[in-house]
Design brief:
Elements lengths: L2 E11 L12 H4 L3 E10 L2 E7 L8 E4 L4 E4 L1 E3 L11 H8 L9 H10 L2 H17 L2 E7 L6 H11 L5 E7 L10 H16 L5 E6 L6 H13 L3 E6 L7 H7 L4 E4 L5 H8 L4 E4 L1 H7 L6 H7 L3 E3 L13 H11 L4 H15 L16 E4 L6 H4 L6 E6 L2 E3 L10 E2 L4
Parallel strand pairs: 1-4, 1-5, 6-7, 7-8, 8-9, 9-10, 10-11, 11-12, 12-13
Antiparallel strand pairs: 1-2, 2-3, 5-14, 14-15, 15-16, 16-17
Helix pairs in contact: 4-5, 5-6, 6-7, 9-11, 12-13
Bound molecules: zinc ion (ZN).
The site of zinc ion (ZN) has 5 residues, from loops.
Length: 411
């Protein structure tokens, strides 16, 4: 098995802190930063990590040029299986129209009309974007089919790209069930769960005005848990509401958005294992007030950052953009934002095998042409990523076509 040495690393972020936590600067300590380090990759895993001068010989070498190496980003919230274009809706919103959840239905119409290959091509293109921008673990939700066959198709296509597939049949009630919401809930928790469970690990519910109310969300989460599926909730995005409390009460892995929180919501999140996943791309794309990450962090909640990539409200695949927004608009330190975009996302997916650089762990790595991770927020909108390795495979640098495009390092 061929080995790869990555050396000349000016700064290595491991998310594996060494020694006791300092009284101040804990967020930076938590990143487990090392200087003058090297890494050896073998068989998709980190085989060795230590001071550059003591690195073992390897078959191939990558010179990081004094730049920064990070764990690959973990994007725990993305909607990548859809058809159609909503750029006109975005332009109208920027011209003053407010966002409402009903815009989802226009994507539902286009998605139902698309072929499998058309949906697969959209997802593949977005996955290629994600990987080029440094994301190596990502979740994909369904939610633009809203029939048993269309939701199953979306979950099946999503499963071609990731193990983290989420059934979001509870995105909105489709138009044909507008007068029979109970009928749609029965369809969702019966035949739709059965059809999608072979592909989906998670069930998500959009609990907000225009989507699903408290009683409906409670029933959906209870039924999903009974079916043995993990839980996620779109909560408190459009206004205050019961989403966060329900997510925590049902032991959901994450409550996502968390834009409008009461003190009680913040308290129950801090006392729970439910991760508060913040999605600043959605506030950016809807010109809305950002969630206050500082309030959650100071209370002791676990925070993740994700893109919420979707055609309606947050059409970005860029975790570096989300980090910059979190720092500038949500009062996170750069260290906290990077931690939330890596190990925080891993926690939101209940994964402990990604989001860190440790010996024996998956070689999911990002190299930056910058001397510090701080440049991710300090240089917003600038593509600093010089290399990405996904399970030890080099992802194609620079713009490419559809498909993640893997290539080997050269000796
Ligand atoms: Zn979403």
């Amino acid at each position: 098995m061929r080995t790869l040495l990555i050396d000349q690393i000016g700064m290595l972020v491991t998310n594996d802190p060494q020694g006791p936590a300092p009284p101040t600067g804990r967020d930076e300590w938590a990143l487990g930063v090392r200087t003058d380090a090297a890494i050896v990759v073998e068989g998709g895993r980190i085989a060795w990590l230590g001071p550059a001068g003591t690195a073992p010989a390897a078959d191939q070498r990558h010179d990081a040029g004094g730049g920064t190496v990070l764990p690959g980003f973990v994007d725990s919230h993305a909607h990548l299986v859809f058809a159609g274009d909503r750029s006109a809706e975005f332009a109208a919103r920027m011209a003053g129209q407010p966002y409402a959840a009903g815009g989802i239905r226009s994507t539902v119409t286009a998605t139902r009309a698309a072929s499998d290959d058309q949906l697969r091509a959209v997802a593949a293109g977005l996955v290629a974007e994600l990987v080029r921008s440094g994301t190596t673990t990502f979740e994909i939700k369904s939610g633009y089919g809203l029939t048993v066959a269309d939701e199953q198709r979306a979950c099946r296509i999503a499963a071609e790209f990731t193990d983290e597939v989420t059934l979001l049949g509870a995105h909105v009630v489709p138009a044909e069930y507008a007068a029979d919401r109970t009928g749609y809930l029965d369809l969702l928790t019966g035949p739709m769960f059965d059809a999608c469970q072979p592909y989906a690990r998670w069930v998500d519910v959009f609990c907000d005005r225009g989507a699903f109310d408290a009683v409906e969300t409670h029933v959906l989460l209870e039924q999903a848990a009974t079916a043995g599926m993990g839980l996620r909730v779109h909560a408190n995005q459009l206004g205050p509401g019961p989403g966060v409390a329900l997510a925590v009460a049902h032991g959901a892995a994450s409550a996502d958005h968390c834009t409008h929180l009461s003190d009680t919501d913040v308290g129950v999140l801090a006392d729970s294992s439910t991760v508060a996943t913040l999605l600043p791309g959605a506030e950016f794309g809807t010109r809305s007030t950002y969630p206050d990450a500082r309030r959650l962090l100071d209370a002791g909640a676990t925070v993740a950052l994700a893109t919420d990539c979707n055609p309606g409200t947050s059409f970005t695949t860029s975790m570096p953009l989300c980090i910059a927004l979190a720092v500038r608009e949500m009062r996170m330190t750069v260290a906290e934002a990077l931690g939330a975009a890596t190990v925080g996302g891993a926690r939101a997916l209940r994964r402990d095998d990604v989001g860190r650089i440790t010996v024996g762990g998956s070689a999911d790595l990002v190299a930056l042409a910058a001397p510090s991770y701080v440049h991710l927020a300090y240089r917003p909108g600038v593509d600093l990523i010089s290399a990405v390795w996904w399970a030890g495979q080099r992802a194609r640098p620079g713009p490419g076509g559809h498909g993640a495009g893997l290539e080997r390092d050269h000796g």
